[in-house]
Fold this sequence. Notes:
Elements: H1 2-18, E1 30-31, E2 35-41, E3 51-60, E4 65-72, E5 79-84, E6 88-90, E7 99-103, E8 106-112, E9 114-123, E10 130-141, E11 145-156, H2 167-175, E12 179-180, E13 184-187, E14 192-196, E15 205-212, E16 225-229, E17 232-236, E18 249-257, E19 262-271, H3 281-294, H4 302-317, H5 321-348, H6 362-379, H7 399-416, H8 424-433, H9 436-459, H10 473-480, H11 482-525, H12 530-550, E20 569-570, H13 573-581, E21 586-591, H14 596-606, H15 609-617, E22 621-626, H16 632-640, E23 648-652, E24 660-661, H17 668-676
Parallel strand pairs: 12-19, 13-19, 20-22, 21-22
Antiparallel strand pairs: 1-2, 2-3, 3-9, 4-8, 5-10, 6-9, 7-8, 10-11, 13-14, 14-17, 15-18, 16-17, 18-19, 21-23, 23-24
Amino acid sequence: MIRFFAVLALACTLGLLGGLPAFGFESAPVATQRSVATLITDADSVAPGGRVRIALRLRLAEGWHTYWRNPGEAGVPVELVPSLSPGATSGAIEWPTPGRMSEGPVTTYGYSGEVILPIAVMLAPGVSAVSGDVAAHWLVCKDICVPEEASFPIALATGSGAPSAQEPLFRAHDLAVPRASPWDATIAADGTLFVRGAELRPATVIDAWFIPDTSGQIVDDAVQLLTVRRGGFTLGLRLAKGFAPASGLHGVLSVRDRGGSQADVVLTAVEGLAPTPAIPLARAVLFAFLGGLILNLMPCVFPILAMKVVGFAAGLAHGKARAHAVSYTFGVVATFICVAIALLVARSAGTAAGWGFQFASPIFVTAMAWLLFGVGLNLSGVFQIGGGFAGAGGGLAAREGHWGSFFTGALAVLVATPCTAPFMAVAIASGLAAPPPVTVLIFAVMGLGLASPYLALSAIPALGWIMPRPGPWMEVFRQLLAFPMYGAAVWLLWVVSQEAGAPGVLATATGFVLLGFAAWSLGITQTSGPRGRRIGLAGAGVAVALALVALAGIAAAPVAAPVAEGGSETFTPARLASLRAEGRPVFVNLTAAWCVTCLVNERVAISNDAVQRAFAAKHVAYLRGDWTRQDPAITEFLREQGRDGVPLYLYYGPHAATAEVLPQILTDTAVLDAMGRPS
């Protein structure tokens, strides 16, 4: 007490003599090699019947930390025990948001560096001063844990309650204290936390995590998988054994946006159902199946389907059609599930990924071009795999034949991703807005839809009459199928040119030459002895390695600026808003160079002379958005429309409040009809 008044008198004297501000109260430090602790106040004095805050100020040595009110799977929370003069009462610690820390195999919640932990002291009416002491206990841990403690005297006399020199520390602390949540939240029995808010959308939310305020609610070290949709997001929590969602989930939710800002809110999640997709689950599943089924008719898949027809006909001849149809189906469904998981992982990492997202990477497009080129060389007979690829002999009846069917299914999915069939957009958007298990289900059902024609043909022998009979024609047809593969590879070369320019084209074309040499080296030595086959394999390996080196420069290629074409303007949300404000009709075409459906629609419907004349006559502004490299602004606009991929066609009539969504398989009639309807 005497020491405190001596320091206070010295501070006032210095202030009078030198014109310096009065110093606020900060106790003498209690220091160890691990931490320095002091007691501070936010005011130099306390008004009669007023309120003042006192705080434990901890400055921790590098690598050391202490614990939050819920320390997690280990640790002890900081404790403050005030003993105050009559008429003074204290509140609980005002905890700032903690950090998540991994200590070996356990996860804990706490603080490192510097932290202040305030408590409020309230004076009853008529009480003009507060005195006493505050006992503090805390645990500091690094490689070992050490309990520490101190007792700090406190004495504040009557005054104006003016802010102290330490008051800025309290203001900084207040910014780190979680606020009341503005969002509604529910927790499902499976641990899915669903948070709803108009400002929560993929363009803003990049990360989120939940910290329970008491132990026993969740498994602290479990991954919290984030899925963001417009108007909310889900966090996949793993509930602790014995925790009942009916009791509600309580804790702190931290949400980080793309600008790096973090919002911390106190969240109470009531028990509720897991979030459902934008449409009922049964309808989403039906649309997924129909979308996968119709995908068989898309131009992307034609070459693979023709290969499958040859293989299926051979399978009928050897009584193996059903088994190979099952192998093909496994390949399709497994690859769809892998695409779903890749999308979920990409989104949880903050990437704006949607259907066909992998084609935004020129490296992936180059690899696909090389793969299809290699398949073409195999079909042309340059080299053989397993005695023949979808051959007309015993190869399909062997074990290798089933692997061939499996990978044919996988290849069908990979080449199908540039296409979007009717029903798919709604199913994909609903699946990606749902919890991860529902997302995987939607994509798996889409795979079943793609494979269903072959399952039906193999399961119903009576349908076999529609298949061609095996014969010598199959070898000729197999070689003929090489040319659609070469054509697809050339198309992908053009896609690379749109994404990576001339350097990408050079690297891809160089890869064609090297892979051609590798295939020739394998093929010419396949009938040789062991030494010859080893030489052929070595030559092929060197060529493939050189081709992979050619990929190095593609990823670093600059993104080409979108080029307006066909009388269009480059789409931006701002330009769309400006045109709509003018009252002009607007046609929006969101497309990508790798989207075959988009390119066909542009040729058949949008570039149609009748449509172009109608655009001119009605003064329709044509906005074309290029999503080839997944422009973030276009990604956000797609999400706002409930889509996760292209194509998307919108028509805004003059002064129309909303857009009319046109079919994904576009015709000139559909465009003309939209322009002819009153807005």
